[in-house]
Specification:
Blueprint: E1 4-7, H1 17-33, E2 36-41, H2 50-64, E3 73-74, H3 79-91, E4 95-98, E5 101-104, E6 111-116, E7 120-125, E8 133-135, H4 143-153, E9 158-162, H5 169-178, E10 185-189, E11 192-193, H6 209-214, H7 219-227, H8 242-248, E12 259-260, H9 263-276, H10 279-292, H11 299-309, H12 319-323, H13 339-350, H14 357-371, H15 375-387, H16 395-402, H17 404-418
Parallel strand pairs: 1-2, 2-3, 9-10, 11-12
Antiparallel strand pairs: 4-5, 5-8, 6-7
Helix pairs in contact: 1-8, 4-5, 7-9, 10-11, 13-14, 13-15, 13-17, 14-16
The structure holds one RNA strand.
RNA sequence: GCCCCCAUCGACUAGCGGUCCAGGUCGCGGCCCUUUCAAGGCCGUAGCACGGGUUCGAAUCCCGUUGGGGGCACCA
């Protein structure tokens, strides 16, 4: 039997990174097994802004590299089918009317159990399961009714979802049995928490896929990181491409215990991917990112600056603050005590030919030698004068890119201010 | 309160009865390299929650305790 799984977000706005991790497990499993994955919007309740949120969800998924098969379906579209089934259940005595609503009759004795791919056997005493509402008094089916029904109608073979659904599972199992549907296999993924072990939320950092995109993370890096939250192919491997993840993913190896989202590790991994990019590819990504985020900086110059920062920043979003001095004027910073070397540097560069990183370096080293300064002492005031910061890309390459005119202006201004 | 789930370094994890005085990665600390910051190289730091069993032998199996988390809606 061919595998069919589904991603079932509710259209409440942005896509939470924790949900995306669960979707990723669905996707990896489907692709690994050569099966199908559906995108189903669970909009039984939120009728507002559905279209917009749905677009947003698709965009985020596509950006990350998670695709799906077939048309998107909406839970709301199957209201009538759900109602019909509910009425049938009432006719069969398996459900009953209650103040205008329809309730399902849960078994009172024994246990409802299933073999969870991730957790093993889970058993829940039936006496702890209440008769649940199938259809509200206004005629709308509830989530716990619509969701399993859709799983049956869509032929879902594996329901892979968050652990917060564990307690819904026995309810849905009983409903599917009552309608005579095939029971899917269930796999409940662990939660993704923040650094304090609490549910990941805004106060921990970025949580929406769009936020990670805006911060300048690379999709394959984020995917790689997410896959490692609750799953590992072995004890050694950590860097894996999209294809490699698909090839190696095993649902049964997903851990049942919750994981914490480590932003520092994500940054490291993103840096790994960034450095592995061909220089042109990195430059291209940088130009695109800047364009999408409102920077109208000269693309040609961005491409030239890219190699200077590729191994120094860990995400695209760090570029503006790290290399912005190449594109806009800087706040004059204090070169305390460095007025002399700054002024001398200006003189040395004024007539320098050619004006290349190599010649700039030897000219400036000559200046330091004459003044009896160590590189550390001499270059730092120059750096601060030229870049406006104590931290920057390589000084000589930066000066070459900046150009003689701007460099001299900044050096002279700094020398004058310090004097 | 009731039900369910979880438990290896600070974090992500490997381990599925002996090869583990527990391995990898991030982080952190130190050293090297070095024009800053990174990157890179080397070294180091730190863990099987606790208590009972089972067994010749337990991080690995069972029970309990403690601690976390989730759920108990005419929300999804």
């Amino acid at each position: 039997m061919s595998v069919i799984v589904r991603m079932a977000p509710s259209p409440t706005g942005f896509l939470h990174i924790g949900n995306v991790r669960t979707f990723l497990f669905n996707w990896l499993y489907a692709r690994h097994e050569g099966g199908q994955i559906r995108l189903r919007i669970e909009n039984t309740d939120t009728a507002r802004e559905v279209a917009e949120a749905t677009d947003f969800i698709q965009e985020s998924l596509q950006w990350l590299g998670i695709d799906w098969d077939g048309e998107i379906t909406f839970q709301l579209d199957r209201m009538d089918d759900c109602r019909r089934v509910a009425e049938q259940l009432v006719a069969e005595g398996k459900a009953y009317e209650d103040e205008g609503a329809i309730r399902f009759r849960m078994p009172d004795e024994g246990v409802t159990a299933w073999d969870d791919v991730i957790r093993g056997r889970v058993e829940v005493p039936n006496e702890s399961i209440e008769d649940l509402v199938l259809v509200r008094s206004d005629g709308r089916p509830t989530y716990n009714f619509a969701s399993p029904m859709e799983d049956v109608w869509d032929g879902i073979t594996h329901v892979i979802r968050g652990e917060d659904h564990i307690s819904n599972t026995p309810k849905q199992l009983n409903i599917i049995r009552a309608v005579g549907g095939d029971l899917p296999t269930y796999a409940h993924c662990p939660n993704v928490n923040g650094g304090d072990g609490k549910k990941l939320s805004k106060r921990h950092g970025a949580v929406g896929v769009d936020e990670f995109r805006n911060a300048g993370y690379l999709p394959p890096a984020l995917m790689n990181f997410l896959a490692l939250l609750g799953w590992a192919p072995d004890g050694e491997t950590t860097v894996m491409s999209r294809d490699e993840l698909v090839e190696r993913f095993e649902l049964a190896r997903v851990s049942p215990s919750p994981a914490q989202f480590d932003y520092a590790k994500l940054d490291w991994l993103n840096g790994v991917y960034q450095r592995a990019l061909a220089p042109e590819a990195f430059a291209h990504a940088l130009v695109l990112w800047l364009g999408e985020h409102g920077y109208e900086w000269d693309a040609e110059r961005v491409r030239k600056a890219a190699p200077l920062v590729q191994e120094k920043i860990s995400r695209l979003g760090e570029f503006p603050s790290f290399a912005g001095f190449l594109f806009q004027d800087v706040e004059p910073a204090s070169v305390d005590g460095g007025a002399e070397v700054v002024a001398a540097a200006g003189d040395a560069l004024a007539e320098l030919e050619p004006f290349t990183a190599e010649s700039i370096e030897s000219a400036l080293r000559g200046v330091l030698e004459r003044l009896g300064l160590k590189p550390r002492q001499g270059f730092q005031p120059i750096r601060v004068a030229v870049t406006g910061s104590k931290v920057s890309p390589g000084l000589f390459e930066s000066i070459e890119l900046l150009g003689r005119e701007t460099t001299l202006a900044r050096l002279r201004r700094a020398a004058a201010t310090a004097a």
